[in-house]
């Protein structure tokens, strides 16, 4: 695999016009070096209709999608699992809403428009509007459920050893304040099968268990947890299930009603790419009377539904309204198309990494158990040194990931990434492995 010399450009790929540039690609994928025409202005945001697939989903199409991001020239960004770059259409929507509110703040809350976004988000995730609270983060959504449930001393919650601090934090708080018991499940990396995972959770259930808490996609290894099977298990045993869905929103084709979960908290800033301070909290309608408000007075109006979980005072209204533009973009491209693209890129990455001596991947190769996050280690090189070497050599940004016995680097692949980004990362990882002593000497 030869090393690709060019970076990604936010500017000149569309040059003098979208139609002309894309038309010129009809014969196939052009040389990566031809994509960077330095010195030209960023292409304008396209109308959503222009992003709807009208032919094959080839690389020419995905470069049209890629053109709608402002990532600086030469930077290959592969840490969408922390913060996704905001598409131009979302940025411009946020900017427009901010300007409008500043010019005429008589309706700064825009409640009616926020409810329109709620409806749009609900349809996007397979729920009803009265089951959706528009929050400020996944963490807030996880706290809504955990602190809203009526716990008694000795009650148990089950979660695995790869859960994020934002999800387990409220339970550690409840352990200290209320006396609940936390039961940890150790999931292998990678696990053998869906049945193995479900069996480990089932074995952990006792008569005192009240809730199973699980990440739909773990932030550590990118494991896709079998949420539907765990939901069926929980409900058979009379338990509730709370899902940390920080990653799937905007990455996977979600249908919360089909999953059957009782609660699902998601992030707006990651794969939906609508900026920080945005989130979604789903609480199934028939369990809302069991989950009290996190803040504010108890609701006396059942028609409010999940809106009762939004009593947190002021919010960033432009960002919330911009979430509607993010959903529109994803719907234009197609939820299934985005999931397939994300999976194809990560599958390519894992397949190449397998061939690099000294590299171990901790993410499952089973498509049922993996998606767009890949965790890998390079020999015994400290993860910080690996990350720094890759960034210094090739301007590729990935993140470090350490928990328990896993200390590696995590790469995320999303709709604005291209196959050559993946190939350049693998080439860079190979260089790190071949120059281990040199890279190791830079640790710390």
Give a quick rundown of the structure.
The protein is an alpha/beta fold.
Figure out the total of helices: 15
**Cα gyration radius (Å):** 22 Å
Shape: globular
CATH class of the largest domain: Alpha Beta
Q: How is the secondary structure organized here?
A:
Elements: H1 18-23, H2 48-51, H3 59-66, E1 76-77, H4 88-103, H5 111-125, E2 132-135, H6 138-148, E3 156-160, H7 165-177, E4 181-185, H8 194-204, E5 209-215, H9 227-236, E6 240-245, H10 256-259, E7 263-267, E8 279-283, H11 317-333, H12 335-353, E9 359-361, E10 373-378, H13 383-394, E11 396-397, E12 399-403, E13 406-412, H14 419-434, H15 436-440
Parallel strand pairs: 1-11, 3-4, 3-5, 5-6, 6-7
Antiparallel strand pairs: 2-8, 7-8, 9-10, 10-13, 12-13
Features:
3 domains; 444 residues; Aspartate Aminotransferase, domain 1; 7-stranded mixed sheet; Aspartate Aminotransferase, domain 2; alpha/beta; 14% strand; 4-stranded antiparallel sheet
Task: Describe what you observe in this structure.
By secondary structure, this protein is α/β, with parallel strands linked by helices. It folds into 3 domains: 8-71, no CATH class; 91-330, Type I PLP-dependent aspartate aminotransferase-like (Major domain) (Aspartate Aminotransferase, domain 2, 3-Layer(aba) Sandwich), CATH 3.40.640; 335-444, Aspartate Aminotransferase, domain 1. It has helices at 18-23, 48-51, 59-66, 88-103, 111-125, 138-148, 165-177, 194-204, 227-236, 256-259, 317-333, 335-353, 383-394, 419-434, 436-440; strands at 76-77, 132-135, 156-160, 181-185, 209-215, 240-245, 263-267, 279-283, 359-361, 373-378, 396-397, 399-403, 406-412. The strands form 3 sheets. Strands 2-8-7-6-5-3-4 form a 7-stranded mixed β-sheet, with helices on both faces. Strands 9-10-13-12 form a 4-stranded antiparallel β-sheet. Strands 1-11 form a two-stranded parallel ribbon. Strand 6 (240-245), helix 10 (256-259) and strand 7 (263-267) form a beta-alpha-beta unit.
């Amino acid at each position: 695999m030869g090393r690709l010399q060019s970076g990604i450009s936010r500017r000149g790929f569309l040059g003098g016009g979208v139609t002309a540039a894309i038309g010129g690609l009809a014969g196939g994928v052009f040389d990566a070096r031809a994509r960077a025409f330095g010195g030209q202005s960023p292409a304008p945001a396209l109308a959503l209709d222009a992003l709807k697939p009208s032919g094959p989903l080839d690389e020419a199409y995905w470069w049209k999608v890629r053109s709608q991001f402002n990532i600086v020239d030469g930077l290959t960004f592969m840490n969408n699992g922390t913060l996704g770059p905001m598409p131009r259409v979302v940025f411009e929507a946020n900017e427009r809403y901010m300007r409008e509110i500043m010019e005429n703040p008589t309706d700064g809350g825009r409640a009616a428009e926020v409810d329109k976004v709620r409806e749009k988000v609900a349809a996007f995730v397979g729920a009803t509007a009265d089951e959706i609270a528009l929050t400020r983060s996944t963490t807030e959504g996880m706290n809504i459920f955990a602190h809203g449930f009526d716990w008694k001393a000795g009650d148990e919650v089950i979660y695995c050893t790869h859960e994020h601090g934002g999800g387990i934090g409220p339970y550690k708080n409840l352990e200290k304040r209320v006396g609940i018991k936390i039961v940890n499940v150790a999931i292998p990396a990678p696990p053998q099968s869906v049945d193995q995972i479900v069996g480990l959770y089932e074995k952990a259930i006792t008569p005192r268990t009240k809730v199973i808490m699980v990440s739909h996609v773990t932030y550590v290894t990118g494991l896709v947890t079998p949420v539907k099977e765990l939901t069926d298990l929980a409900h058979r045993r009379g338990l509730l299930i709370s899902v940390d869905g920080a990653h799937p929103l905007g990455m996977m084709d979600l249908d919360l009603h089909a999953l059957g979960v009782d609660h699902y908290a998601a992030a707006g800033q990651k794969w939906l790419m609508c900026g920080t301070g945005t989130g979604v909290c789903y609480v199934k309608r028939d369990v809302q009377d069991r989950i009290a408000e996190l803040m504010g007075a108890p609701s006396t109006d059942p028609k409010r539904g999940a809106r009762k979980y939004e009593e947190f005072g002021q919010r960033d209204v432009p960002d919330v309204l911009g979430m509607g533009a993010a959903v529109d973009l994803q719907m234009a491209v197609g939820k299934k198309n985005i999931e397939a693209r994300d999976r194809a890129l990560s599958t390519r990455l894992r397949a190449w990494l397998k061939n690099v001596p000294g590299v171990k991947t901790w993410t499952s190769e089973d498509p049922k158990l993996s998606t767009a996050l890949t965790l890998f280690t390079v020999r015994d090189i400290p993860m910080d040194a690996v990350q720094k070497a890759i960034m210094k050599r090739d301007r590729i940004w990935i993140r470090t990931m350490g928990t328990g016995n896993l200390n590696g680097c995590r790469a995320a692949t999303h709709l604005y990434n291209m196959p050559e980004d993946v190939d350049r990362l693998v080439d860079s990882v190979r260089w790190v492995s071949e120059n281990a002593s040199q890279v190791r000497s830079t640790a710390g």
